[in-house]
Task: structure prediction
Amino acid sequence: LIVGMGSLESKLKMVSKGLGIDKDVLFIGAVEHREAFSFYYGIDIFVMTSKMEGRATALTEAILSRKPVIATRFCGTQDSIIDGETGFIVDIGDYESFAEKVLFLLNNGHLIKKFGEKGCRYVSEKIKSANSLRVLVDFWDKTIKNKQYVKKVCS
Result:
């Protein structure tokens, strides 16, 4: 299942046909963001072969959908994946290692659920921590802005 569009779409279609797997690979194309979550439930493993990403929202969404992730080493993957425990991080361009990791998970199905659950817990905790920090920063911002008011009331 390949969701999204990009400059490599036609090449990927040719490669899948050349490998004789074109009947097994579904190219969905672009989808609305609100529709994307439904696709996570239809997959076993999420792979991201990007050379670079902005916020890598799809990566986080897949992890929160309890899917193990195999992704290239771009900015942000180390923040979301515990290599070998919640998924795998592979160097960009190391296609052989990437394929080995995919096959490893497919051949060790019991790890798919284990990695997915642990990844979801890990990222959820990071989000909670970030939100707690954000609440604290907002509190202090408001306190500093209201400093004059506090002085007046307490004097």
Q: What stands out?
A: DSSP finds seven helices and five strands in the chain.
